[in-house]
Amino acid sequence: MCDTMVALGNSTKDGHVIFAKNSDRQPNEPLLMLDIPRQQHAPGSQVHCTYISVDQVRETYRVLLFKPSWMWGAEMGANEFGLNIGNEAVFTKVRQGPNSLLGMDLVRLALERCKTSTEALHLMTDLLAKHGQGGNCGYEKRFVYHNSFLIADRNSAWVLETAGPYWAAQKVHDVRAISNRLSIGRDFDLAHPELVDYAVSKKWCRNANDFDFARCYSNHLVTRFSGSQSRQGACSLRLHQEKGQITVETMMEILRSHEQKLGHQGPFRRSSLGSVCMHGGGLVGDHTTGSYIASLSSTLDTYWVTGSSTPCISVFKPYWMTENEILFDREQGEALHYWLFREEFHRLVLQNKVDNLDNHLRQGADLERKALDQAASLGAEAEPGKLNAIMAEFWQVEEKLVQTTVEESRWNQGNMKGSPYFRHYWKKQTKKLGF
User: Fold this and answer.
1) Residue of 2, 137, 277, 312 with catalytic role
2) In this predicted model, what pLDDT tens digit does every residue of 180-233 receive, in sequence order?
3) Which of 295, 298, 293, 320 is closest to 388 using CA atoms?
4) Which CATH superfamily is domain 2-330 in?
5) Residue 277 annotated as catalytic
6) From CA 414, how far away is CA 428, in angstroms rounded?
7) pTM for the whole thing?
8) What is the pLDDT of residues 252-299, one digit of tens each?
9) Who's near 315: CB < 8 A, 6+ residues apart?
């Protein structure tokens, strides 16, 4: 379960394209941040994705990935040319195929090989036609689905929605939010050549005049229980309300937002499938394991990342794709530790062991505000050395903040709130992580 948004330059306050995504997955599944350099590959070589191998290209571009620790592909990410892609699970009437490419594999393959949103759209549909999609996407339990994508570059964006081998694509003109549901109806710009005929043959619609992609291809029952309608509606409403004035801060607020019905209880006493900042603990639903925002311009692309779950208690830090030692280029080790350490903080909050949570959040908000101000003050030709200094400062201060709070709280007595099921769920999950 996820939510992804984009606002093109005609809808933002500073004229930049702003892309944002929460990755909602099983709560114990680490989401690793990786910055992988441009690489050369031998002619005729192959790359092994999560389940299958595909032909490799001679050169792959530098990519910033946010990926589940156990799979090859990525939930979201960017490349050195400002191309950004986010993936969504969608639930359709088309039967699942055998192990092949996952939606996350398609994200990474396109980021490694494409420069623009249109180029990525065509590559992803070509790969889908050649290899298909299918395979378990779950970490600790089986979970299968088809995929939709929001694809954006510094000038344009596309929505690509799939159902097995079938797909439809729609060009974005101002703002757009997607979630765990098909949303393209009759008004698509490109589509699989057999998209309509297949739906008619299955009697999902009477004829071509009756065709609506989302209505014909959706598994409406599973889609309804995904909570996607309320989340997508909340994102879309906010984007349209603020069209012309959308900022990075707007996206941060949306990614941290909770559904109103939580009320005074808050998100640490019950699950919240309908919240963009999703909290696990119910019979269905996932947990937000990572959050990401990209501000794209012709002169400088700035990325804002938490590197942690639960954005409502996390700090967004600036990242630039300079030559730096901030992020990691290896799958495990430091990248895994980075996420797990911040996840320990989240579990301490759940257990009500953090006595100074308000103070921690206040310091985090102040740090984030200072980083936003510094990023806004940068000139068009910001020197890499200056960018590296800004990153080093804010990443180190955030690390110290989390470290201090965790060390002060680790041995406190706590009393988890919520229903017996909620408490049992999180105690079981936390025990599995070894905290």
Assistant:
1) 2
2) 999 999 999 999 999 999 999 999 999 999 999 999 999 999 999 899 999 999
3) 320
4) Penicillin V Acylase; Chain A (3.60.60.10)
5) no
6) 16
7) 0.96
8) 999 999 998 887 678 999 999 999 999 999 988 899 999 999 999 999
9) 306, 364, 367, 368, 398, 401
